[in-house]
Structures are given as structure tokens and as C-alpha cells.
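[job 0412] stage=complex_fold ligand=cytidine-5'-monophosphate status=START
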Amino acid sequence: MNLSGKKIVVGISGGIAAYKCAELVRRLKDQQCEVKVVMTESAKHFITPLTMQAVSGEPVSDSLLDPSAEAAMGHIEFAKWADLILIAPATSNIIAKMATGIADDLLTTLVLATPAKVAIAPAMNQQMFAHPATQRNLETLASDGVAIWGPGQGEQACGDIGKGRMLEPNELVEQCTSALLPAEQPLLGKVITITAGPTREALDPVRYITNHSSGKMGYGLAEAAKMLGATVNLISGPVKLNPPTDIHVSHVNSAIEMRDEALRLASESDVFIGCAAVADYRAADIAEQKIKKQGDAMTITLVKNPDIIAEVAALTAKRPYTVGFAAETQNVEQYALGKLKNKNLDMICANDVSQAGLGFNSDNNALTLFWQEEQVSLPTSNKNELALTVVKAIASKLD
Ligand code: C5P
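[job 0412] stage=complex_fold status=DONE, emitting C-alpha cells
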């Protein structure tokens, strides 16, 4: 399947990654789609309109107030023409303008005037990307329904290393393909509830016990389940991730809060995935006032938290297909199969967290999926890709 017949506006803003846009447009044209390029004034400092015209085979648009361009195709007509507007690279400046609805040039005006899907490929210095203002603006755009593709991690043009690289042209073409072509939706009509992230167990008003879970795997599963057509409930512990769009998110802190929300949603769900790293214990008593320093040692009494997934799997009426996760540092198969049986799960996804760069707080993971009678090993890959494979495997087991 290619993108034949699809109409894409590639909007280029002024960042060094603009030099990759010639390649991006070439790869999109390979997919036989129609591409029109819009450039901001600052983009022209990084790549010339002539280059973009040559690769797209179309005149480049850059001005809102150009009578001849308006006569050929007015900006509202242009905005309606597109099936997708992809802004690549998207600088912190254009992201900020989009988040506040500023329309002071052709590209930002098209974004407001289009009924089409809008995607951005952020690209900037890692410090600029991490700035709270940029993060705030990205959250706003995500909740407005703008797709945010990337950025990637690695060495930057300025010499810094970190998050802020524009995705590579081939990765952006893949994103365009999944955004524009109808994916197979084996989970249409199914409801999936997913727990994600850590829990936070209060000791007193200012202190808590938690763990290093980032929530990336659970959020990836939620996105994947949505892509495959499911209605998704995500029960999330405290994480630093942008909430996915078109997914019902319940924010919780403690294991008890997570359990209450899980049991409320599980009996309405076809599938329950327990991906959260739930604290095994909580304080027996949460002090009402800040605990004061006393002596050289102190003892806190902990009591066991409920096993959320085991309670879901024990539901008698309307029990969902129940999938757990097991992070192990040794005897992965033995422990995973033990949990599958003891918690009465239908499937368990196990990973070896002793391997450097995998599992907790990392972008990558490697999983082995276990059922009672079967097992499948999935090689190391990005958590989002892995999530899609896991959700497809679950879908294949449902009636
Ligand atoms: O027993 P362990 O914590 O290793 O089991 C992991 C699996 O059980 C995960 O699916 C996790 O989300 C779930 N779990 C839970 N409630 C707990 C502990 C773990 O749902 N209290």
C-alpha cells in the first residue's frame, strides 16, 4: 500500500533540520502522493525554496499576502486541499505559536484553517525541548489533537546530546502512512483497560515510596490499542508523559486508588492489561503531620497492597481477558509462568530487567509472551513498536 492520491502539505519552519526536508519530500513523492511545500521566512535561511520546488515539482508557498498565489489557490482552499499538514521541522517558536493560535504567516494560518490532521516533527536543542514552556505547549497541542512525531534522541547539530532531533525522513514517511491509511482494526468495538506507571505510597503529607517506572510501556500499549480500534481506558500513576489523545485517562497515586479504578473499569472491559509497577507495600498509617527526625534509625511499618491484577482475574462475572507483566532479574521463564498461574492470568509479558538499557525507564524493551501452552520471544525494540506487537497478539486471542 502506498500513499497514492493523498495530499500532504509539508510545512518547513526555521531549524537546521530543514536540510532533511528535500529528502523527506522525495520519499513522500516515492509514495505517489501529492506534496505541496510551505515555508516560513526563517526556513529559507536553512534550505532554499528552489530546492524544495525542484523536489516537490510544485511552486513553494511562503506568503499569506501574495495576490498571485491567492489567485491560484486561496489559503482557505489550500487548507481544505490537504489530507495532512506535516510541520517538519517544528521549532519551539512555531510550536508556541500553534499552542496559542497565532496565525501570522501562511503556515500558521493553514494550521488554524484546516479540517485535516496536523502533525509536527519537533526539532530543537535538547535544552529548548526540555524547557517547561515547550513541554506545556506540546501538551496543549496534543490535547488539541495535533500528532507529535518524535523528537528522537542523539547528537545534535549544536554538539549537544539529548532529545530534540527531528525524526529521520523515512520515519516521518512511516508516520504519514499510518496516519493516512486505514489500519486494520481488529479491536473495533472492544474496550481495553490498562494500568501504567508507578504508584506512590504516602508516608506523611510530604514523603512517599515509589519506583522508577516511567509509564512508557503502558502508554505505548494504550496508543497501540487505540490504533487497532479499541476504546481505551488508561489508569496512570504519576508519570512525566503527555496524556494520549482520544483515550480516557484516570490519574491515580496510590495502589488503593489504582485498584478502585481498575475494578470499576475491569468489568466493563474486554481486556485488562496490568502494566503498572504497583508498590507491593504501603505505610500501615499515613502520618497526618510531617514525620520529625528522631534518633539514628527509624522503623516504618508497611502492610501489603492488594494485588490489583489478581483481583481483576478473580472476577467471576464479566471477567476480562487479563494480561500481566513480569519484570525479572533472573529465572524469567520460571517466575513468569508462576505468576501466570498464581494470579490466574490469560497471558503474561516478561522481561529481563537485569539487561542494561532495557525495561524500567528506558525507551527499549525485549519481551517474551507466555500463555499456558505457548510462548513467543519478541526481540529488543522501541517500546511503542513492541506495544503494537503485544496488542496484536492479544487481539489474535480474543473471539
Ligand atoms: O507480582 P509482581 O508485582 O511481579 O506482578 C507483576 C504484575 O502484577 C504486573 O502485571 C503488575 O501490574 C501486577 N500487579 C498488580 N498489583 C500489585 C502488584 C502487581 O496488579 N499489587
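The pocket of cytidine-5'-monophosphate is lined by residues 195, 255, 274-276, 278, 305, 307-309, 324-326, 339 (CB under 6 Å).
[job 0412] exit 0
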